[in-house]
Amino acid sequence: MTKHFLGDTATLLGRSLRHIARSPDTIITTAIMPIAMMLMFVYVFGGAIKTGSDSYVNYMLPGILLITVASGIAYTAFRLFMDMKGGIFERFQSMPIARSSVLWAHVLTSLVANSISLVVVVLVALLMGFRSSAGAPAWLAVAGILILFTLALTWIAVIPGLSAKTMEGASAFSYPLIFLPFLSSAFVPTDTMPGPVRFFAEHQPVTSIVNAIRDLFTQQPVGTDIWIALAWCVGILVVAYVFAMNTYRRKIS
């Protein structure tokens, strides 16, 4: 059964990746928006923002990486919606394949596509002056956090992808997720914010994830932020997975 599931998932993953390869504009579009934000914040607003860091691009890159993921998972919901409306799910269900492999193929496709977008954004940040003294273990830890964050948001994207009535509705859910880093420590220190906004910023998941990645990049002690970040990512992943699978079972029953 496990071999059956893995083989079916790999086959369907190849199908989704071929679709992306035939339309690379998906990845380009996903990467362009965060890159445009990075250019604007660094070269327009960066000189007026005091962060205590020598380089503003070093300070804000973790937030830009999270925005890259948040904008990328909108396409996961879009692809799922199009498969649902196109009758692809019904066609697959009539074939002798593992049922959950259809969803897992979309999730893994999102992971691959977002990983490519993240690499593109980091390369552009390097051209803009981003530098990190982090060693291989710290970079691996950053990669691990981003993978967990991508999986958590992708399973959230599965829910509207399966249940939305319109294409716009399937993609629109990502807007609050893209906006969330602006209410965190991603672009300015939280102690510059008014009381209620500061309280929200310091207790929402993005701030702990951004702080953990920033400390790993700068080789600073990560403290409790990394454990809080991991707890947020794993908690969101588990809850989103349960709701997504329940939605999927209702759709195919």
Report the average pLDDT across residues.
86
- Measured as a percent range, the helix fraction is over 70%
Global structural class? mainly alpha
Query: How big is the Rg?
Result: 19 Å
Folded structure, characterized:
The chain is elongated and about 60 Å long. The chain contains 11 helices and no strands. The chain is mostly helical. Helices cover 77% and strands 0% of the residues. The protein starts with a helix and ends with a helix.
Provide a brief overview of the structure.
This protein has 253 residues and is an all-alpha fold.
Helices and strands in order:
Layout (H helix, E strand, L loop, with lengths): L1 H21 L2 H21 L10 H30 L2 H6 L6 H28 L8 H28 L3 H6 L1 H6 L15 H8 L2 H13 L7 H28 L1
Helix pairs in contact: 1-5, 2-3, 2-5, 3-5, 3-6, 3-10, 5-6, 6-10, 6-11, 10-11
Keywords:
253 residues; mainly alpha; 77% helix
